[in-house]
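Inverse folding, one chain.
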């Protein structure tokens, strides 16, 4: 039995001017054959895994918080909607990001296909870039005792600038069961396998990711190989869960043990192995310290297969500590200031538990980013063939540099909604001030030298000197020392990047360890109670915003840091402050303080040292003068060295393979 139905009314918000969309959309009852060929599936409708906590629920279904009737997830692919219930599948993992498929792929229309049993109504909606909602089509199911297949055909024509598609379900006096719902196409996607690469120094986390990869036959069908590049002191093979990972993945799993070459060395090894030792058409990089939604692998794979021309497909970052929160929706590199930031229009730290997709206008506009972090990022083989391998940068900026290089060769990066992993947000890390501060600065300079079309010396000098003062006022002498080392190494040129890839981190750790502010103690209880007036500290913590006030506060801090400190403050912190309160406009008025680290696991005892302050400030001034003067020479050297730094032969020699 088949029937066509178009409707301009529904139990929801309607938009009569868009009723013409019914001309390009339809619903069909297709009998009992629910099978959609795997090479036509774009995105499966899925539900939480058994091990997922309750707070992930808003990512899979949008249901009113004030009702007692909730849908029941009966498996990863099936759900029961109880009687007298209205629920929406306009959720992050189950709405279809139509605008991205319209813009980047050859798919011109999609088919929502589901198998249902019972009674109820299914309605399909779309959104505009503004977030306005339009009803497209719907179908009532009445007393279906046997499983029946529904198909909803929707054109992607109006989705150039933004918009999602989803379905809602309404029941009255009976329940409705739904299973095997998929967003699909009527055309076959080319078959392409994925080589997955996981770089790890946290073997326990890596094993958890391997279990997730191996749990679903559909995911295993597209995975040709899994390379774990093991760079830690503890080995993956020694973890209790490793035998189960081997059982699930079989001969698809290969663990490569090598010295710690950082993220760039580990991920590059995964790319290298995927290119040299598999015929997989795609290579997917995953961080080890993630929790994986396995269907994200299928979605990235399908998107790349359907792309009108090759694109890099990135996954979003969800917050591992607050699972319903989207931390990163899309990112860009601002080449004029040589900094990374959220993409124009992108949201950050969005809580779907508080603001569902349908109610968040900003989430409906299509976002264009220029790079995606390697917590999850997929590369077509052609991209790597044409642009080479990443640079030997150890960590930080390697992902951004590689994406910018790909973009310059005509391979854009698409951060795909609905493809995501849970990862610790960078706001809970100290990586702007700990040993990684060296790599932040050096590698940012390398990226700017290679890719910025602007004369960035002005911004680099202004930002660099301002940052040096802020850290010095905050008594973070180790951070300033590492920043200066980074500038000095950058000015030496690119010749030693490969040579020092494995040794640079130990060198940096040794330098940092020479400064007392780098030493982390368990708690402020290690010291006598603080003496500073907390009310005065509260007043000082109010951020200055007026430029005149900022300059005045900075001048006072400068004068204070040139004086000898109170002798009692050398051994007794004047105040205990949180990581969030450890700001220059407070600490710049003090002689000492304990400051918690970002994750709250310990404190650093910072003490004012006028001699160190003067030495490091003089070093910073000299290095920034050199940076301005020598930039043209150094930029030329890095650009000339790029082919060798990214060559497969150079990396092959380093790997010894």
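Residues assigned per position:
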């Amino acid at each position: 039995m088949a029937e066509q139905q178009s409707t301009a009314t529904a139990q929801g918000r309607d938009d009569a001017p868009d009723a013409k969309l019914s001309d390009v959309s339809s619903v069909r009852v297709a009998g009992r054959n629910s099978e959609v060929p795997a090479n036509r599936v774009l995105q499966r409708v899925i539900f939480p895994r058994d091990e997922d906590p309750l707070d992930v629920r808003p990512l899979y279904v949008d249901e009113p918080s004030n009702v007692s009737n909730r849908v029941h997830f009966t498996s990863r692919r099936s759900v029961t909607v109880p009687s007298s219930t209205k629920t929406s599948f306009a959720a992050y993992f189950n709405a279809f990001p139509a605008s991205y498929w319209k813009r980047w792929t050859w798919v011109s229309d999609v088919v929502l296909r589901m198998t249902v049993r019972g009674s109820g109504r299914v309605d399909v909606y779309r959104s505009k870039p503004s977030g306005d909602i339009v009803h497209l089509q719907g179908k009532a199911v009445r007393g279906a005792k046997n499983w029946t297949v529904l198909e909803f055909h929707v054109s992607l024509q109006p989705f150039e600038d933004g918009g999602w598609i989803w379905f809602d379900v309404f029941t009255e006096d009976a329940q409705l069961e739904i299973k095997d719902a998929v967003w699909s196409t009527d055309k076959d996607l080319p078959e392409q396998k994925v080589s997955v690469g996981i770089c790890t120094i946290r073997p326990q986390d890596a094993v958890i990711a391997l279990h997730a990869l191996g749990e679903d036959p559909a995911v295993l069908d597209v995975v040709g190989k899994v390379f774990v590049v093991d760079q830690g002191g503890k080995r993956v093979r020694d973890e209790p869960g490793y035998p189960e990972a081997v059982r699930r993945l079989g001969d698809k799993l290969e663990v490569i043990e090598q010295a710690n070459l950082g993220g760039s060395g580990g991920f590059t090894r995964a790319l290298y192995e995927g290119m040299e030792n598999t015929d997989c058409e795609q290579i997917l990089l995953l961080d080890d310290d993630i929790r994986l939604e396995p269907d994200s692998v299928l979605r990235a794979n399908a998107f790349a297969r359907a792309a009108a021309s090759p694109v890099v497909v990135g996954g979003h970052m969800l917050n591992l500590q607050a699972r319903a929160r989207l931390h990163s929706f899309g990112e860009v590199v601002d080449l004029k200031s040589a900094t990374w930031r959220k993409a124009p229009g992108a949201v950050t730290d969005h809580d779907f538990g508080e603001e569902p997709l349908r109610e968040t206008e900003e989430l409906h506009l299509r976002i264009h980013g220029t790079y995606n972090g390697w917590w999850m990022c997929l590369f077509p083989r052609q991209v790597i063939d044409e642009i080479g391998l990443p640079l030997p940068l150890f960590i930080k900026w390697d992902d951004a540099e590689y994406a910018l290089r790909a973009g310059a060769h005509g391979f854009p990066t698409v951060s795909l909604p609905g493809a995501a992993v849970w990862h610790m947000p960078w706001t809970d890390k100290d990586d702007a001030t700990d040993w990684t501060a060296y790599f932040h600065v050096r590698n940012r300079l390398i990226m700017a030298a290679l890719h910025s079309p602007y004369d960035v010396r002005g911004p680099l000098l202004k930002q660099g000197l301002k940052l040096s003062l802020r850290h010095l006022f905050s008594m973070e002498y180790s951070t300033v020392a590492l920043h200066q080392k980074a500038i000095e190494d950058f000015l030496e040129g690119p010749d030693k990047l490969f040579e020092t890839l494995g040794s640079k981190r130990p060198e940096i750790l040794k330098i940092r360890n020479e400064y007392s502010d780098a030493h982390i103690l368990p708690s402020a209880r290690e010291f006598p109670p603080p003496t500073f007036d907390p009310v005065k500290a509260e007043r000082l913590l109010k951020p200055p915003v007026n430029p005149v006030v900022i300059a005045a506060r900075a001048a006072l801090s400068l004068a204070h840091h040139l004086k000898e400190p109170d002798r009692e403050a050398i051994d007794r912190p004047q105040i205990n402050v949180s990581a969030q309160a450890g700001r220059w406009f407070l600490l710049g008025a003090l002689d000492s303080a304990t400051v918690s680290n970002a994750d709250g696991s310990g404190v650093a005892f910072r003490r004012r040292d006028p001699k160190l302050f003067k030495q490091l400030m003089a070093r910073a001034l000299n290095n920034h003068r050199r940076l301005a003067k020598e930039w043209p020479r150094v930029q030329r050297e890095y650009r000339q060295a790029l082919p060798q730094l990214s060559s497969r032969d150079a990396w092959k020699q380093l790997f010894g393979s």
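The first strand starts at residue 25 and ends at 29. Residues 610-645 form the longest helix (36 residues).
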